[in-house]
Write a structure and sequence with these properties.
The protein contains 14 helices and 13 strands. It has 434 residues and is α+β, with helices and mostly antiparallel strands. Among the domains are: 147 residues, no CATH class; 123 residues, no CATH class.
Length: 434
């Protein structure tokens, strides 16, 4: 049953008002319809599916024009929720810094400054489009789910994780070179897009930023960008990368060795058992580290992770980190934090229909992704609130179901009030009939 906007929950209404400078009055109504529709929709999040969730006199064509033609900026919306997130997190960061100062052991000399680490995580996700071959921006991209290249859109996404809170950055559409040339758009590689993200990102004041990327983004340009900003960086590594290994038998005292060959030379005692952090099921892994230089990168810590020493070496995972001061437990914590971006993609697809759009223009597609991420920002805030109340782990799906329960209760209260005030049943039925 559709819900009138008048039944909008107070917290969701306050969140929506944060964006009032991004939209004019008619656009603001469509924004609220999309936001509420994403929260309540149990079917595909097409424009029709979203419109059916809200009992307002708006047209499907108007909603379509809101995404494709209306004069509002997706970048402005993303900047607004980032400012909103920073405002919420700044007092929490200062409280954490104060807590670290109080727990710091008293000793002579200059005290160690408190460190609050925020993770800037980048990745891309393929949105498989089995139909809609006339959509802009389509290309053939690798799908991890399908295990092959499929027709669809490639979303390059950043995620900021700080003190257990998650904030997505502005989504970006990656076009392959042939697609960009056909559409008359300047080609930007995924490395270009990720470099721009790192260089433009503004963290919460008083924090240290640590960039986390997979092996696709283990490029020197991105390490340079992180170093330029004073950020730490940890990336995955391919096994064909070369390490600088000490070798007194050579004239220079060292040689280059493939990472796969180095890993094959290790013995069981070269690994230590570490706990891989997880909200649900922490597990033990075997970890080896080496501080050296990777060819075409910088001096870093190499991390080799194996689930079991009995498993084939081909199943091992390899990483490089610029955090030279971190011990093995800290390095494993950095690696585990990168999984949050995978959770982001899974949650936005499952709970908010990130890949269910049927829009034709690139502008409309990016705007849809942007509003999905705006809805995620609100759900993450609700997740944090529920976690504090319940003192247990809460998922984005549980937060969304709690939002739905609030709106069903408000709908029942509104109906009761309308009927008690003598409202015509037929009029109410016509308004609420899907």
């Amino acid at each position: 049953m559709p819900v009138p906007i008048v039944c909008l929950d107070a917290r969701l209404r306050q969140f929506a008002l944060t964006f009032r400078r991004c939209f004019n009055r008619p656009q603001m109504q469509y924004f609220v319809i999309v936001l509420l529709g994403l929260m309540l929709c149990q079917e595909h999040r097409t424009l029709t599916g979203l419109q059916r969730q809200v009992a307002e006199q708006t047209s499907l064509s108007g909603l379509s024009r809101f995404f494709s033609d209306a004069p509002w900026s997706a970048e402005s919306v993303a900047e607004t929720w980032l400012a909103y997130f920073r405002t919420q997190l700044e007092p929490l960061v200062e409280a954490e810094r104060q807590r670290q100062r109080q727990r710091r052991p008293k000793k002579r000399g200059r005290p160690t400054p408190p460190i609050v680490t925020g993770y800037l995580i980048g990745d891309d996700s393929t949105q498989h489009k089995r139909t809609g071959r006339q959509m802009a921006g389509l290309g053939r991209h690798h799908s991890t789910t399908e295990g092959k290249r499929v027709v669809g859109h490639s979303l390059v996404q950043g995620l900021y994780v700080l003190l257990g809170r998650r904030c997505p950055l502005a989504p970006q559409l990656y076009r392959q070179r042939t697609t960009a040339e056909a559409e008359g758009v300047t080609f930007q590689s995924k490395i270009d897009l990720m470099e721009a993200l790192i260089l433009s990102f503004e963290p919460v004041v008083g924090t240290q930023t640590h960039v986390l990327l997979d092996s696709w983004y283990a490029a020197k340009r991105l390490w340079q960008a992180a170093r330029q900003r004073g950020f730490l960086i940890t990336t995955g590594l391919k096994v064909n990368r070369a390490l600088r290994i000490d070798d007194p038998t050579t004239a220079q005292g060292w040689r280059w060795q493939k990472l796969s060959d180095y890993a094959a030379s290790l013995k069981a005692e070269d690994y230590s058992v570490q706990t891989w952090p997880s909200q649900t099921e922490p597990r033990t892994v075997h970890v080896h580290t080496l501080q050296t230089r990777v060819r075409k990168l910088y001096r870093c810590q190499i991390i080799i992770v194996r689930e079991s020493l009995d498993a084939p070496l081909s199943e091992a995972r390899y990483f490089a980190s610029s955090d030279l001061a971190a011990d093995r437990a800290q390095l494993v914590a950095h690696l585990a934090a990168r999984w949050d971006v995978e959770t982001l993609f899974a949650d936005t697809k499952e709970e908010l229909g990130l890949d269910q759009y049927q829009l034709m223009s690139a502008t409309a597609i990016v705007r849809f992704w942007t509003l999905v991420m705006a809805a995620y920002v609100f759900l993450d805030e609700e997740r944090a609130r529920l976690r504090e109340e319940r003192q247990c782990h809460v998922t984005i799906g549980e937060a969304r179901r709690e939002v739905q329960r609030h709106h069903r209760r408000r709908l029942i209260d509104w109906l009761s009030h309308q009927l008690a005030a003598g409202g015509a049943r037929d009029a109410l039925y016509r308004r609420l009939a899907a």
